[in-house]
């Protein structure tokens, strides 16, 4: 943009930074074109404005649906200044080249996500003119500076001041990319509204849109580049997209995966709860009367694996618990809040990542996305809950009251444990966890081994399995070690063998009819 170019068009929904932008452009000698509410806001600040309707000779109409959709506007944005024919055509039509465009869009995405607007109101929030302006200006970025985000105003104005009104092509191209990204995300949000889950669960074209939250140091391994993106369509439950990091090193790719697993399990189980996660698997979970007690019981499940783990708490962390946490090496802690004393103790562990969620909110059912080479897998979240009314006791023995509580607790933990998964528990605490094994009997053996290594009593415990037993071997192993009740989905052609094995040894067995594979 050269020193002589002095026409700007400003039409913004978000008026953050508008007075400063208008005043700076007026000082630089720009003639400012503007629309409706933007023009009024600028005039209230003493900034001289020409209304678009006065410039085009055509009034805003159709309840402001049509304001800037006019050749005098779009020709001014699209004319290539390097082509004499374009310039002569503008002159013949009495059209001024527009050299700077400041536009942001109606808040459709925010209002749609709020769930407070009906369809008629949301349709009126679909921006047409703004998107058209941004696309036109961004296409012609060599001649037009496009401001689509108020956060860019100060940097661009500073460059213009340094360069006597000029802007480098590098900056203009960067701003053009931002404008196209904004319109792409906006169109995706509108298409999801019109064609998405409101009409069909799996539309012919899926248009998810995510915004960069932060680059990451690396991915699963140091040679893999990585970044964390967040969705603009949050379903409302607690998530890592909204947590605050209070201290510690930057989050890694693996940290985020583990933190999400830990937070998910806290939200699933509820109560005064501690969850310890290692490599996305729970290695200790407990609910108790106090948070400190729950943490000590959870850590006791597998103290070796708890070294270098991720810990999630369901309630505020105080200084006593913080001291216990820092007695061993921990990668990260996530909780609703912390006392000042707890934060003081954590501050002595400079690398410890401490994250605050604020009040916890259960997650509603959501859609799970997972990329593969050349495609994307989409499914409903595994949101089915424990329901005593749909369970079936298939053995002669029935679980005792305390065993029912333990069965519900361990079954829910299975949901967040990599398959094949076996979880041993007593009351509301894990005893041993066998995760990610290729055979179910090996997962059961691993859970028993973990319990023995931790010197936790297996007799009187319960066992939960994420899928059915193809053979009776897991039942026999459970009985040998004193397990008293088992919960599993059922559905194997050999279910009767497992039932008979349980009856032979006096175990109670419950079928849920629900599998919880987690790959």
Structure overview:
With 519 residues, the chain is α/β, with parallel strands linked by helices. It folds into 3 domains: 7-195, Methylglyoxal synthase-like domain (Rossmann fold, 3-Layer(aba) Sandwich); 240-356, 3-Layer(aba) Sandwich (Cytidine Deaminase, domain 2), CATH 3.40.140; 388-511, 3-Layer(aba) Sandwich (Cytidine Deaminase, domain 2). It contains 19 helices and 21 strands. The strands form 5 sheets. The protein has a 6-stranded mixed beta sheet, with helices on both faces. A 6-stranded mixed beta sheet has the order 16-21-20-19-17-18, with helices on both faces. The chain starts with 6 loop residues before the first strand and ends in an 8-residue tail after the last strand.
C-alpha-based Rg, rounded: 30 Å
Number of domains: 3
Mean pLDDT: 89
Given helix and strand content, the structural type is alpha/beta
State the end-to-end distance.
54 Å
Q: What portion of the residues fall into strands of 2 or more residues?
A: 15-25%
At the first level of CATH, what is the class of the largest domain?
Answer: Alpha Beta
Spans where pLDDT lies below 50 across 5 or more residues: none
By CATH, the architecture of the largest domain is named 3-Layer(aba) Sandwich
Considering DSSP H and I runs of 4 or more, what fraction of the residues is helical?
A: 25-40%
Major sheet description: 6 strands, mixed
Considering the protein shown, what is the CATH homologous superfamily of the largest domain? Methylglyoxal synthase-like domain
Number of strands: 21
Contiguous helical run count? 19
Arrangement of strands in the largest sheet: 8-13-12-11-9-10
Quick one: overall form? elongated
């Amino acid at each position: 943009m050269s020193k002589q170019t002095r026409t700007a068009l400003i039409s913004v929904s978000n008026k953050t930074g508008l007075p400063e932008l208008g005043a700076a452009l007026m000082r630089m000698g720009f003639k400012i074109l503007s629309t409706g509410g933007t023009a009024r806001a600028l005039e209230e600040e003493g900034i001289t404005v020409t209304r678009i309707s006065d410039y085009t000779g055509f009034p805003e109409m159709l309840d402001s649906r049509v304001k800037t959709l006019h050749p005098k506007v779009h020709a001014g944005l699209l004319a290539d200044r390097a082509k004499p024919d374009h310039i002569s055509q503008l002159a013949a039509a009495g059209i001024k080249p527009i050299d700077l465009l400041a536009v942001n869009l109606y808040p459709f995405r925010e209002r749609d996500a709020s769930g407070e607007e009906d369809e008629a109101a949301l349709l009126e929030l679909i921006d047409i003119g703004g998107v058209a302006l941004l696309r036109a200006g961004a296409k012609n970025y060599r001649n037009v500076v496009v401001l689509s985000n108020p956060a860019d105003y100060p940097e661009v104005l500073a460059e213009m001041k340094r360069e006597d009104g000029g802007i480098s092509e590098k900056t203009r191209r960067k701003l053009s990319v931002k404008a196209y990204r904004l319109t792409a995300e906006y169109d995706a949000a509108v298409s999801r509204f019109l064609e998405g889950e409101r009409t069909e669960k799996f539309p012919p074209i899926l248009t998810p849109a995510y915004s960069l939250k932060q680059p990451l140091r690396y991915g699963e391994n140091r040679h893999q580049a990585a970044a964390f993106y967040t969705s603009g369509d949050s379903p409302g439950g607690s998530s890592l997209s909204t947590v605050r990091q209070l201290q510690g090193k930057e989050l890694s790719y693996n940290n985020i995966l583990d933190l999400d697993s830990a937070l998910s399990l806290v939200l699933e189980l509820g109560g005064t709860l501690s969850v310890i996660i290692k490599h996305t698997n729970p290695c200790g979970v407990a609910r108790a009367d106090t948070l400190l007690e729950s943490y000590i019981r959870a850590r006791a499940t597998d103290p070796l694996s708890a070294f270098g783990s991720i810990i999630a708490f369901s309630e505020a962390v105080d200084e006593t618990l913080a001291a216990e946490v820092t007695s061993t090496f921990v990668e990260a802690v996530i909780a609703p809040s912390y006392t000042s004393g707890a934060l003081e103790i954590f501050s002595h562990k400079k690398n410890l990542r401490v994250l605050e969620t604020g009040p916890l909110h259960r997650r509603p059912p959501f859609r799970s996305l997972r990329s593969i080479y050349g495609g994307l897998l989409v499914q409903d979240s595994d949101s089915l809950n424990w329901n005593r009314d749909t369970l079936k006791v298939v053995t002669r023995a029935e679980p005792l009251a305390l065993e029912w509580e333990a069965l519900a607790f361990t079954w829910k933990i299975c949901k967040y444990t990599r398959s094949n998964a076996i979880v041993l528990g007593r009351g509301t605490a894990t005893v041993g966890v066998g995760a990610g094994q290729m055979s179910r009997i090996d997962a059961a053996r691993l859970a028993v081994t973990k319990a023995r290594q931790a010197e936790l009593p297996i007799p009187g415990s319960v066992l939960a399995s994420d899928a059915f037993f193809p053979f009776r071997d897991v039942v026999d192993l459970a009985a040998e070690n004193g397990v008293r009740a088992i919960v599993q989905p059922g559905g194997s052609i050999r279910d009767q063998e497992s039932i008979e094995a349980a009856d032979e040894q006096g175990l109670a067995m419950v079928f849920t009819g629900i599998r919880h594979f987690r790959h």
